[in-house]
Design a protein that fits this description.
With about 375 residues, this protein is of the alpha/beta class. The protein has 3 domains: about 120 residues, NAD(P)-binding Rossmann-like Domain (Rossmann fold, 3-Layer(aba) Sandwich), CATH 3.40.50.720; about 160 residues, Dihydrodipicolinate Reductase, domain 2 (2-Layer Sandwich); about 50 residues, no CATH class. The protein contains 13 helices and 18 strands. The strands form 3 sheets. Strands 7, 9, 10, 11, 12, 14, 15, 16, 17 and 18 form a 10-stranded mixed β-sheet that branches. α1 packs across α12, α4 runs parallel beside α9 and α6 packs across α7.
Length: about 375
């Protein structure tokens, strides 16, 4: 087991936990060499281990020829991409929790790792503390996965749970999750579905060897849902969840990121709060479900450190660089819906079941749904997750 010298980029929520664990560790397999921060004046009290240096110069720290591993915890796709690219061009092993970067540039970065003898690992980029990437790459490697679906954003799931169980408004639930430290100051990517979409892009690439774009996924978030939809869902015994899914059917790859209403028999129905969960359907194992914390520095830091431990053992955890731009993908083409209209339900449609102001539709195409909305002003709809 070779001693690994490490550059740590970022000392925020996750970076601080990783730093503390590295300093406290008695594992002789690694040594902290550099800690890169943007505002050194905020970290004057940091007690660096012997031989480690604090700097704002990421190039010096990343390109140091004695450094073996770069842990990128800056976030975003600006400086982070520059630093990761430089590290891979210098043959370094890179660990990142940066879902935005992996989703938008993962194929390019995988190729650099392969060309220059480095590695790119990103267990922490999807589902927080759930080792889902390792499960896909190792535990399910002999299997053929047909479908992956999941609740992949702890912030949005907490908000939906608080609205459902506590009767909070969207704004009140958002303030509560922020106060508990499970949401960013700017939660736009969480509540609009972008964060979830990036994670689904990563899982789709790993499982189906296809590269989706954010534009293709066209995610729908939870920030537009009305109190009437929540009330109707509760009346029907349903729970609203922000669900991400990709599945193979008859040679086509289908995908969706959107809030859906789940019935009690669905494996994700009971997943509440900041918990994340992933359901995988495969030929050999069948249906398997993986749950764990999806928000918080400690859970994500654990995944970062797990990648470091694997690299220290000499394991190669890079994804495939042979992924193809998807040609035959399509969004979900036919679904059933929960529909709500306080002034009366549409006529001329055979509902599966109905109440006074809400009903469950038969399977509708996007054209059917568009026509239904156009002819029924005030109608609100929510897909059923089945």
């Amino acid at each position: 087991m070779n001693n690994k010298r490490i550059t740590l980029l970022g000392l925020g929520t996750i970076g601080q936990v990783v730093f503390d664990e590295l300093v406290a560790s008695t594992n002789g397999a690694w040594q902290l060499a550099w800690v890169v921060v943007k505002h050194p004046e905020r970290h004057q009290t940091v007690l660096l281990p012997t031989g480690a240096q604090l700097t704002t110069d990421w190039r010096r720290a990343v390109e140091d020829p004695t450094v073996d591993v770069v842990i990128e915890l800056i976030g975003g796709i600006g400086v982070a991409k520059e630093a990761v690219t430089s590290a891979l061009l210098h043959g370094k092993q890179v660990i990142t929790a940066n879902k935005d970067l992996v989703a938008t540039a993962g194929t390019e970065l995988d190729r650099l790792a392969e060309l220059y003898g480095g590695a790119l690992t990103y267990e922490a980029a999807v589902a927080g503390g759930i080792p889902i990437i390792r499960t896909i790459n190792e535990g399910l490697a002999p299997d053929r996965i047909r479908r992956v679906s999941g609740i992949l954003n702890g912030t949005s799931n907490y908000i939906l749970t608080a609205i459902d169980q506590e009767g909070l408004s969207f704004d009140a639930a958002l303030k509560e999750v922020q106060a508990k430290g499970f949401a960013e100051a700017n939660p736009t990517k969480d509540v609009t579905g972008i964060d979830t979409a990036y994670k689904l892009i990563i899982l789709t690439k790993l499982i189906f060897h296809r590269t989706l774009s954010l534009a293709q996924l066209a995610p729908t978030g939870i920030d537009h849902l009305s109190p009437r939809l929540f009330a109707a869902a509760k009346e029907w015994g349903l729970k609203i969840k922000l669900l991400a899914s990709t599945w193979e059917s008859r040679g086509q790859l289908n995908y969706q990121v959107a809030p859906v209403a789940l019935n009690p028999s669905h494996p994700l129905y009971q997943v509440d709060g900041v918990t994340n969960a992933v359901v995988i359907d495969s030929d050999l194992v069948g249906t398997s479900t993986y749950l764990g914390p999806g928000a918080g520095g400690k859970a994500t830091a654990n995944s970062v450190l797990a990648d470091l431990a694997s690299l220290s053992r000499g394991e190669q955890l890079t994804g495939s660089s042979a992924c193809l731009r998807i040609e035959n993908g399509r969004p979900l083409t036919k679904q059933r819906y929960l529909v709500v209209n306080p002034t009366g339900l549409p006529t001329g449609l055979q509902f599966s079941d109905r109440h006074a102001t809400s009903a469950l539709t038969p399977a509708l195409t996007p054209t059917d749904l568009q026509r239904l909305r156009a002819t029924n002003p005030g109608l609100e709809t929510l897909a059923l997750g089945e």
